[in-house]
Amino acid sequence: MNRRVPAVNLKRLAPRIGAACRAARQKLQLTQEDVAERVGLATEVYGRLERGNMTPSVPTLRKLCLSLNLSADVALALDDTAELPPRPMLEEEQSADVRRLLRRARELPPDRLKILLQLANVFAKDAGARTEQPRAAEDAA
């Protein structure tokens, strides 16, 4: 049972990992910035990884696989058909605008964040009032 394991060619592995990450990211309709933030990398570093110019560390590869719902077998080109069951989308993953807003909100100082929250509450109440108006008109008819 002494199986010979082929040597790893990092020059070939990096582009395969990058291509697998890009495909998974696009399938989830995420930006490079979204993935970089989730994994804890600078956007530029994640871009180099996707282009195949660098190989991620094992902990980073694990985070990538979890964030992108990507099988490590696919990322490492061991099995091109391996698929993970679909994971439920988080609320912030649904809209690029919401993701951008959340990113910007995290950068705000506490006093500005409080103002943003107050604005969001006003907009939410306004949106709720608009959806109730047609119902009231229907009930009157």
From TrEMBL:
Report the PROSITE patterns cross-referenced here.
HTH_CROC1
**Keyword Transferase: yes or no?**
no
The answer to whether UniProt assigns keyword DNA-binding to this entry is yes
Q: Where is the HTH cro/C1-type domain?
A: 22-75
Q: Which UniProt keywords apply?
A: DNA-binding
Q: Can you name this protein?
A: Helix-turn-helix transcriptional regulator
